[in-house]
Write a structure and sequence with these properties.
11 strands, transmembrane helix, alpha+beta, ABC1_dom, 5-stranded antiparallel sheet, membrane, kinase activity, 24 helices, globular, 605 residues
């Protein structure tokens, strides 16, 4: 790492080290040995608040990281998700003189580049800030990257990359994959967001995809006044989408607006393959005639055709409420482990679909499933590959906005109607039949190829010339633990025997020294049998673990959830299970939409 990165590493370590030590003790009470500690929800929430304060202290990179983590229930427990959802990308703007330097370096003297320029920023964010100006007789929004932010971000990214192997030692193996993909995704996303030339390209492409839809407004790019660090756009005014009282005064149909928003993102992801990936309320506005306005395309992404097809299959399975097909689609997309408990996941999906449809759910079902899911969602066999992480972010944030507009909004009906109108569901049936024909064809071919191979194998057995190679999959390190116990046991036997011999034929002091070694070996061996991370496997998320958690929490749950809290638990609890179609995760996002400050201008990051 560079000198700045080394310096930054110690600053970051100073902020995070106390929490990391606490997490280490959660896994082994005495760091090296000992049983795991039980951590209460209150403790997790207190730690989440401390971690949030550290991120605010560390600045732009970690603010962005916290925002990304707020949409990753596969990485963090629900208490962290809820706390991080309050993290707003709004910081005081850099002094105008510093921003003027950036504009001058990119476009020349400000007075020559623009007819008028207001030096007071209308929006300040961690990576850039937005100003109002006039160019060729029209109002424009000028987005300027913060001075020197690139050096800080690069140093922080090096620190994160260097720290990741260390961090892996403090998390469960179930979270390792998600953490690695999260780090890669975050580095890509934040670098893309600092590249205003890329943002301009994505903005223009998405604008062209909606050119024939009058209900959608996307600002135009002023190319001659845009560079890699300065982006000049058409200024489009509007009322922030979460200001429902103002929308009601304008006479806007909020249910129809929510439907428009959902259909727009379905088109982006399913049809176009390029999408606006930061739909929080500060980046969405509504004009007096109900036109939906999009701002800030710094965070945007693409969906490859394979994932598009699987998302269509996923939505189609949801429309038909075919739970097995839903799970199959999740496995094929790489978001669900093939070894997951399908029966348990089926229960979760059924409940998530019922919640997304706004159906009444019996209270005992919520207590038996959703509260357990809410506590263990980050331990689920659900993982987010990099090509789906932004899609999930979009789905969960859009869902939160739609719920704010219409608490009874039915995401599944809108998705089903869109798929039917675009011909995807019928196409899915046709593709299913074609796949089955392919399966029959392959089965016929296999019936011809298998007998000769079987005869060859039997001949090898008859000649006693058949060899079999096996590979032991020891992901839980059971053999390693057995080897350690065997070594410690042999050492204990040797030291015990030595102690006896020394006591009989030598001095008491020598026997005492040997006895201490024997006692130490005995303690280590005893603790290894008490450690849950050893041979006794811990269920990740199965019916057994649900029953255990339900038994432990039954007393605390009884009477703690009224009708309204039950609904909130349903929405937030299934965050990772079905966020792709909107229903789960609304609790966190409603919090986000309520706390986002008012904005009626472009360029909010």
């Amino acid at each position: 790492m560079a000198v700045s990165a080394y310096r930054r590493f110690f600053v970051v370590a100073y902020q995070f080290l106390p929490l990391l030590l606490a997490y280490a003790r959660d896994r082994k009470r005495f760091f090296v040995v000992g049983s795991p500690r039980q951590v209460s929800s209150e403790t997790r929430r207190r730690r989440a608040k401390r971690l949030l304060e550290s991120m605010l202290t560390l600045g732009p990179t970690f603010i962005k990281l916290g925002q990304l983590l707020s949409t990753r229930p596969d990485v963090l427990p629900p208490e962290y998700i809820e706390e991080f959802s309050t993290l707003q990308d709004e910081v005081p703007a850099a002094p105008w003189e510093e921003a003027r330097t950036v504009v001058t370096e990119e476009l020349g003297p400000v007075d020559d580049a623009f007819e008028a320029f207001d030096p007071k920023a209308i929006s300040g964010a961690s990576l850039g800030q937005v100003y109002l100006a006039e160019y060729e007789g029209r109002r424009v929004a000028v987005k300027v990257r913060r001075p020197d932010v690139e050096d800080l971000v690069n140093a922080d990214l090096r620190v994160i990359k260097f720290s990741l192997p260390i961090l892996m030692r403090f998390v469960d193996t179930a979270q390792s994959f998600s953490l690695e993909t999260l780090a890669d995704e975050f580095a890509t996303v934040i670098r893309q967001e600092m590249d205003y030339e890329r943002e301009a390209t994505m903005l223009k492409e998405i604008k062209a995809n909606f050119a024939d839809q009058s209900a959608i407004k996307i600002p135009a790019v002023v190319d001659e006044r845009s560079t890699g660090r300065v982006l000049t756009m058409e200024f489009v005014d509007g009322t922030k989408i979460s200001n429902v009282d103002d929308l009601d005064e304008l006479g806007v149909d909020r249910t129809r607006l929510a439907e428009t928003l959902q259909r727009v993102y379905l088109q982006m992801i399913v049809d176009d393959g390029v999408f606006h990936a930061d739909p929080h309320p500060g980046n969405l506005a509504v004009q007096a005639d109900g036109t939906l306005v999009f701002y800030d395309f710094g965070m945007s992404g693409r969906v490859d055709p394979y994932i598009q097809d699987k998302i269509v299959e996923f939505y189609g399975a949801i429309a038909q409420q075919n739970i097995d097909a839903i799970l199959d689609a999740l496995i094929e997309m790489g978001t669900l482990s093939p070894e997951a408990d399908r029966e348990t996941m089926a229960d979760v999906m059924e409940l998530a679909i019922a919640d997304a449809r706004g159906e009444d759910i019996e209270q005992y079902r919520v207590q038996q499933i959703i509260e357990q899911v809410e506590d263990t969602i980050y331990e689920f066999p659900l993982r987010l590959p990099p090509n789906l992480a932004l899609v999930l972010r979009v789905a969960t944030v859009v869902e939160g906005v739609c719920v704010t507009l219409d608490p009874n909004f039915d995401f599944i009906d809108v998705a089903t109607d869109y798929l039917q109108s675009e011909g995807y569901i019928e196409a899915g049936v046709q593709q299913f039949l074609e796949d089955r024909l392919d399966d029959v064809n392959q089965a016929v071919q296999s019936s011809v190829r298998v007998p000769p191979k079987l005869e060859s194998a039997l001949d090898a057995v008859n000649r006693e010339n058949l060899s079999v190679q096996t590979r032991l999959d020891d992901s839980d390190r059971v053999m390693e633990q057995l080897a350690r116990r065997l070594i410690v046991g042999l050492f204990l036997t040797a030291t015990t025997l030595t102690t006896g011999l020394l006591y009989a034929f030598s001095t008491v002091e020598a026997a005492a020294v040997s006895g201490l070694f024997a006692a130490g070996a005995l303690v280590v061996l005893y603790l290894s049998f008490r450690d849950d991370s050893g041979i006794r496997a811990r269920p990740q998320f199965t019916r057994q673990s649900m029953r255990e958690r339900d038994a432990d929490a039954r007393g605390g749950l009884d009477g703690a959830m009224g009708p309204s809290s039950g609904e909130t638990g349903t929405a937030g609890g299934a965050g990772g299970a079905g966020g792709m179609f909107g229903g789960p995760g609304s609790a966190a996002n409603e919090s986000d939409t309520e706390r986002t400050s008012d904005s009626t201008t472009t360029g909010r990051e």
